[in-house]
Each structure stands twice: as C-alpha cells, then as structure tokens.
Protein: ABC transporter ATP-binding protein
Amino acid sequence: METIRVENLSVAYRGKVALQQIDLELSAGKLTGIVGPNGAGKSTLMKGILQLIKTQSGKIFYGEQPLNDHRKKIAYVEQRQDIDLSFPIDVFGVVLFGTYPHLKMFQRPGKKEKSFAAVCLEKVGLSDFADRQISELSGGQLQRVFIARALAQQAEWILLDEPFAGIDATSEKIIIELLKELRDEGKSIVIVHHDLHKVTDYFDEVILLNKGLIASGPVAQTYTTKNMEKTYGSEITQMLRMGGAGFAT
Ligand code: ADP
Ligand code: MG
Structure:
C-alpha cells in the first residue's frame, strides 16, 4: 500500500486559476472525502492527480515513484454527467473491461478474466444485472457497476467524483457500506463529496478545498468549525448549526 502525494499542483483554465499550489498526501487504506463549495476545484484535483488535464505545475507520486508508472493501480469513476451512457454495453462488459489493463497486448479476455469479472459483480450485489444495458440502470446501480470494474482492475485506489449525486438515500447507504467494506479489506478510497451532514459518518480523513488547500487530515482534527468557515465563509456555520452538520469541534 502506497500513499499518493501531490506536490505543488496548480491548474488554470484559460488563465483562470482553479487550483493553487496544492501540497497534499492521501493516506493509504482510508476513506477520504474531498469537500468544498461548488467550483472549488474538487473535480480538477482528482483529474490533476490522475494527470488527465493539463497542469501549470505539479508532481504526483505513488509512494516514491511517479504516479504515471502505476496508473493501473488507481481506478477513477468520473462524475455521472461526464459519462456517456448511450454507449451500447452491458453491465458484464463494463466490469470485464476492468480486467483489460492486466491483459497483454492483443490478448482477449478468457475464462479466467470472465470468472473474475463475475466475482467482482457478485461483490457489489449485481450478479442478476449482468445482461442489462448500462443505460437501463439507476444511478446507484451504475456507481456499483463502476466499483465492480475498479475491483476487476485490481485497483488499490478507487477515486469517485460525487458518487452520491442524484441518487436516493437507500442506494447511497448501500454504496457507502460497500466502500467501507472495501476500505476494511485494504483498499484506499477517495470521494468528492457535497453533503456536509455525512462527513463525520462517512470519512476517516477529509480534504478541505477552495482553490487552495484549506486543511487536510483525520476528520476529528480537520472538520472543525474554524476550517469550515475558511472553506465556505462564515455564513455557512450558522446555516449548518441549524441543520446539525456535526462538526468535530
Ligand atoms: P468542483 O468539482 O469543486 O465543483 P471543478 O474542479 O469542476 O470544481 O471546477 C473548478 C473551476 O474550474 C470552476 O470555476 C469551473 O468552472 C472551472 N472549470 C472546470 N473545468 C473547466 C474546463 N474544462 N474549462 C474551463 N473551466 C473549467
Ligand atoms: Mg465537481
């Protein structure tokens, strides 16, 4: 298990700063939340870590080595709005696709890959949906299919961008329980998250972001009223107190 380390990551879109000099270490074996207001750069941080976008500066390490040399060990589930659901592929096909990084060039998935894909689908409780087109799934089922794909990839890290956006409370509960189980089995999970009320229930560690890094670390030390004011501005505190956001201190 290796940590992911971000060194001096800056991103700008057409000259407009989205992320400013982020230094950060993501702990392995934890469930980590990336939290911040709309437009804070949360998705940009994930894409920057995976080097899917052009960056102004920054180095990303997996342990002591460049992360790009270990890309297979990191699975990424992008925001649902960015996923092309019109692509005709069934659930089993999506999960099987996860085994591809481990196949040699020109090799096709065989018995071994297929049975492993079936095991991964079973793990997320969707064996009965193997033949469904992905366009026919609920948002929650879709997230679970992508988690199964990450397992088929044998990823050590699973990065999910707003997996709970637009899904019902029951599905959200199924997914967070699944992710906690995977964390307990040794996976490292990172989630871009919006709903402040769940932060203390869901995460071991939290990263507070608003273009710059506000704070990061274990929830009890990091998810404090003071840090949340720095992240969202002072009016948030009163608003959340009424709703009971449950800051650590
Ligand atoms: P978050 O995920 O926290 O809501 P994003 O990382 O998506 O924030 O975006 C950070 C900022 O960068 C926002 O102001 C957004 O409008 C801008 N941005 C994001 N992606 C692009 C893009 N492809 N082109 C131009 N601006 C972008
Ligand atoms: Mg986003």
User: Anything to note?
Assistant: The chain has one domain: 4-243. Residues 125 and 203 are 23 Å apart (CA to CA).
